[in-house]
Amino acid sequence: MKILQLMRPAHWVKNIFVFAALVFGGKLFGPVDEVLLSIGSAVGGFLCFCMASSATYIFNDIIDRESDKSHPEKCKRPIAAGQVSVGQGIFLAGLCVLAALFCSYLLSMSLTIVIAAYLILSTIYTLLLKDVMILDCIIISVGFCMRAVAGAIVVGVYISPWLIICSFTLCLFLAFGKRRSEMVMLGDEGHEYRKTLAGYSMELLDHMLDVTSGLAIMCFLLYSMDSRTEKLFGTTNLVYTSPLVMYCVFRFSALIQRGKYSGPVKIIVSDRPFQIGFVFWVVACIVIIYADKLGLDLSGVWAY
């Protein structure tokens, strides 16, 4: 049980970005064999990133085991709590790396390269960059972009610049939200646990949340109205899902600034209104993107 806890399965929800290309690449409907292959490939890519991300979590827990002992929540992690030895952690991390690389190779050599790049970037982040203000959040966001790119690779769709831009701006918003929640939880002693927090302030992070939330929404609106999007889907109706996007983004920001949750993952897996808003947005996107294949005519819906 402690071994599974060490792998942080609750954080595998972050790898949902792998499925973005499956939905927005038009692979959810079509010939049954092609759809099943695309879904299977996307699930495979998701599992590969679950193993890869678990390896980075374990490595991070090993490196931070002393500072984690003073953290109100992270002191309960198996290595910091002394429930799993460093040797066992290294062995498990190695197994996760091998599983991620081997399984990704079975799917695509390009996916293997992305997984390897993610592991290298995460290692550099843990050892050198996580204490560098602002750059720490940028590196986290790049890691999420790699997940989105991996999803496009495994389902065999064009890697749109909009996929990368929207993923990056959204995840930069989430990363600053994570720092904001850490400052609320740790208070004035936060810099003793994470050095980079000494460079942040509540006011600065609130400003960064405002800026990045606006960027994320604006990028989605621009993507929705882009000529290539219209050519691909035959419509710009995705723009009409923007109220749901705004609701989810603004609710996340409000919850973070109120200090109600300890981080993005807690909100995603625990906050029911956020979950409902996100599910409605996904369903709306699927209906709009696949309207023709679903036998729906939405051409006159917005005429008035």
| Structural shape | globular
Instruction: Classify the secondary structure makeup into a structural class.
Output: mainly alpha
Count of separate DSSP helical elements? 14
CATH superfamily of the largest domain: UbiA prenyltransferase
Instruction: Please report the total strand number as a whole number.
Output: 0
- Per the CATH scheme, the topology name of the largest domain is Tetracycline Repressor, domain 2
- Strand content is under 5%
CA(first)-CA(last) distance: 57 Å
Report the CATH C-level class of the largest domain. Answer: Mainly Alpha
Give the low-pLDDT segments. none
Radius of gyration: 20 Å
Question: Average pLDDT across residues?
Answer: 87
Largest sheet: number of strands, sense, barrel closure: none
What's the number of structural domains?
2
* CATH architecture level-2 label of the largest domain: Orthogonal Bundle
Helix-strand string: HHHHHHHHHHHHHH
Helical fraction equals: over 70%
Describe the structure.
The chain has 2 domains: 1-159, Orthogonal Bundle (Tetracycline Repressor, domain 2); 160-299. Helix content is 70%, strand content 0%. It has helices spanning 2-6, 20-24, 32-63, 65-68, 86-107, 109-129, 135-155, 161-186, 190-193, 202-225, 227-233, 242-258, 264-270, 272-289.
